[in-house]
Amino acid sequence: MFRNSKERRTDHEERIRRLLRLHYGESGFRLGPARNPNGLADAISRYFEGELDAIEGLPMQTAGTPFQLDVWHALREVPCGTTVLYAQLAERIKNIEVFSAGCSTCNETIQA
After folding, report:
1. Where are the domains of the chain?
2. What is the pTM of this model?
3. What 8-state DSSP symbol labels residue 93?
4. Whose CA, among 18, 88, 92, 105, lies 20 to 30 Å from 98?
């Protein structure tokens, strides 16, 4: 059964709020209307117009373990339009022993 766009948008918003609460705690974030926060809307528009590096300068703030932060930092250094193997990512963060944990962190990033 298909749902209308308002229902999908509501479901999406509830899911995002739940994920934000899990990640940042009950009072660790604030949502509010904004037209172009930190140039985000402009950067996303330019990205979808083909300027792939337009999003590279956007500020990023996230919570996580020190290891997760290392992985996310390394992922931000992967040039747009290219791929990196998990083994290469582990080498970049100088932590080959935690290869499977890196895979898990990447998976969490994709789903969030």
Report:
1. 63-112
2. 0.54
3. T
4. 18
- Residue 62's nearest CA partner among 100, 94, 14, 19 is 19
Following DSSP, what letter does each residue of 14-30 receive, concatenated? HHHHHHHHHHH-TTS--
Rg of the Cα atoms in the chain: 17
Output DSSP code: residue 94: T
Look at residues 66, 64, 62, 67 and name the one whose alpha carbon lies nearest to residue 101.
67
- 3-class secondary structure per residue, 32-84: CCCCCHHHHHHHHHHHHCCCHHHHCCCCCCCCCCHHHHHHHHHHHCCCCCCCC
**Confidence class of residue 111 from pLDDT cuts 50, 70 and 90?**
very low
pLDDT tens for 33-53 read: 888 888 889 999 999 999 988
